[in-house]
Amino acid sequence: MIEIFTTPDGLTLSYERRGSGPLLVCHPGGPGGSAAEFEDFAGLDDTFELLLLSPRGSHGSDPADDYALTSYAADVEALRAHLGVEQLNLLGFSHGGCVAMAYAAAHPDGVRRFLLVDTLAVWGDEAEAEMTRMIESRSGEPWFGEAQRAIEEEQSGAFSSVDELIGNLQRQIPLYFHRWEGNEQVGGRLAMDFAHAEPLHHFNTVEFPTFDLRSELREIKAPTLVVAGGDDFICGPACAEAIVGALPDARLVTIPESGHFVYIEQPEAFRAALTGFLL
Asked: Mind listing the pLDDT tens digit for each residue in 19-73?
């Protein structure tokens, strides 16, 4: 079921409700990705009522003039108010985890249980070294050269339209999987899930160069589960450990043989970690 709400600044955002059980609000990544990132979310809709948000600037929701992290977080607070609940079980994936951390720090009483999946709070030397090592470990793959160049182009903001961005992501998406063979179709769909180039361009060129949420994390009250794919080159174990080290009440689960999309490559392990934490 697709529903909509309106933010205080006049944006109409959509979300999908799926399943039954305790409510779990899920914020996708990108930035610019939509609820479609959670097309098959490890079968969690058998146990939870999933609320899958399509944030500002993604398919199904309005574009915006402002893609600052604080604005994404304000949209989550607008969603909470729209739902009429005091607290959320909140999951943030990738950039959605950055949004979720900003939200939970600004509204510490608004989160009951907190889940951060393949995300980052800071980018430092350890994360950079881990990324370089993981990318170089794929150098024997036939798609490696194109993917490596695409990553460099994307991170420098070398795209000016959504078509250029999608073309770039289609070249680099194999790096996001522990094993590309067998995941070509789902990876292709994920790369297509962008309606606008501006959200990612803003993050890469404006926010990422000085990105560091660690000082805000001490404000978060909710018990937190941090999940990382063992072979996630972009938000892997080094990023997860930095988050856990800055949070007052957090546990870390690292899932082997999975890249960035841990819920796709290792759905059973991912589901077990989440249900064990939430139930």
From this structure: 999 999 999 999 999 999 999 899 999 999 999 999 999 999 999 999 999 999 9
Q: Which helix (H) or strand (E) holds 14?
A: strand 12-18
**What is the sign of the dihedral through the CA atoms of 154, 11, 66 and 17?**
negative
Instruction: Give the helix/strand (H/E) hosting 113.
Output: strand 111-117
| Residue 185 clears pLDDT 90, i.e. is over it | yes
Place 155 in a pLDDT band, splitting at 50, 70 and 90.
confident
Q: What one-character DSSP code corresponds to residue 86? A: S
Q: Is the dihedral of CA 206, 201, 38, 34 positive or negative?
A: positive
- Which position has the token pair 């993604």? 58
- State the Cα–Cα distance between residues 206 and 160, nearest whole angstrom: 15
For residue 81, the tally of other CB atoms under 10 A from its CB is 13
- Per-residue tokens: 51: 């609320």
For residue 200, give the nearest of 150, 243, 241 by alpha carbon.
150
CA-closest candidate to residue 94, choices 278, 268, 270, 260: 260
